[in-house]
Fold this sequence. Notes:
Blueprint: E1 13-14, H1 20-29, H2 34-45, H3 56-59, H4 61-70, E2 71-72, E3 77-83, E4 89-94, E5 100-107, E6 112-115, E7 119-122, E8 135-139, H5 142-157, E9 165-168, H6 178-189, E10 201-205, H7 209-219, E11 224-228, H8 234-240, H9 249-257, E12 267-273, H10 281-290, E13 296-302, H11 316-328, E14 333-335
Parallel strand pairs: 1-2, 6-9, 9-10, 10-11, 11-12, 12-13, 13-14
Antiparallel strand pairs: 3-4, 4-5, 5-6, 7-8
Helix pairs in contact: 1-2, 5-6, 7-9, 10-11
Amino acid sequence: MEPVSPVPARPTVDLTGLPPERLLAHVQELGGRPVHAWTLLRALHREGLPDPAQVVPHLGKRLLAQLARTSHVARPRLGGGLASADGTTRYLLELRDGHRIEAVDIPEDHRTTLCISSQVGCAFGCSFCRTGTLGLERNLDPGEIAGQVALLRAHIEQAGREVTNVVFMGMGEPLANYPAVRDALQILMHDRGGGFPPKRLTVSTSGLPAGIRRLGEDFGGRISLAVSLTGTTDAQRDRLMPVNRRFPLDELLAACRAYPLAPGRTITFETVLLGDETDRPADADRLAALLGDLPVKVNLIPFNPFPGCGHRPPTPESIEAYFRRLNAAGVRTMIRQPRGRDVGAACGMLAASAPGLSSPPPAPRLARAPGPSPDGDGGPSSGTTG
């Protein structure tokens, strides 16, 4: 008689990654009511509770038993961190399969920005970004994305600070993992989930036109959009950002022009200034011409070097000259001051490894760098980009 093969266990659902309406449907299938779903959503994403059992009085024993049978919670685990002299903290997060990602806490006088990852590594290979040297291991799922916020929000609130802004500027290209990023955004902006106003959620891209269009269609332009431009010609971007070989500047800018924006809102364009490469007067003039008909804000990001990068930082004089040239052309411009450079947390430096990145430091209680009110357009004033 042939042995009977065991029936494979039914995969369980990660509650952390279910968008609000799917969480509601899941809870109702188990016999729960809408109030139970919204209680669970808030517990997971606003209060940062890692286990539904911690909200037993609200859920009831029967529903809790059903959730234990059909569901799990798989948010990242805090694996280590490094605190910068300027108040920025770089966090190492560990995933269930052993992969590691990073997130960055950027405190300022009037707000705290949390920079999160969307992929393990990155496939896009921008030459000025250390994450791009890692290659792509895999996409993060919605729970691993939203779970970064839930985990670190609770950690930061213990220090008496409130996370006001979230930027998808850590490891990975968010729009290359669009379905998971979309679900995470739905969780983060839901009033019973993350509770973030959509304008305080920023998605940054190296230039994927189809992703920009989907983001605009799905959220009606309410999510803040940031575009990493850096090169002002196709030849420059082809060399520095291989994505441009598939999606050249005209396609990228056409998608940006079609992005639905409410009156007074802008798209943020980020330009990494590389010494004697992208920091010259002609670069500033071309950038002003490229963006002339778009409602934009430009962030100038002085390059943060890393071993083997092949680029060098711009001089203070070239940064100032570029800034003045754009302002003279009527382009709203700011120079993004590096945050966390001393611990490898600044723009383009994340690599999920560093000496000393082993034990998590306490979140700093006081902001140490001035910044605008969180009622701005949602983009980082001195944020970080993986």
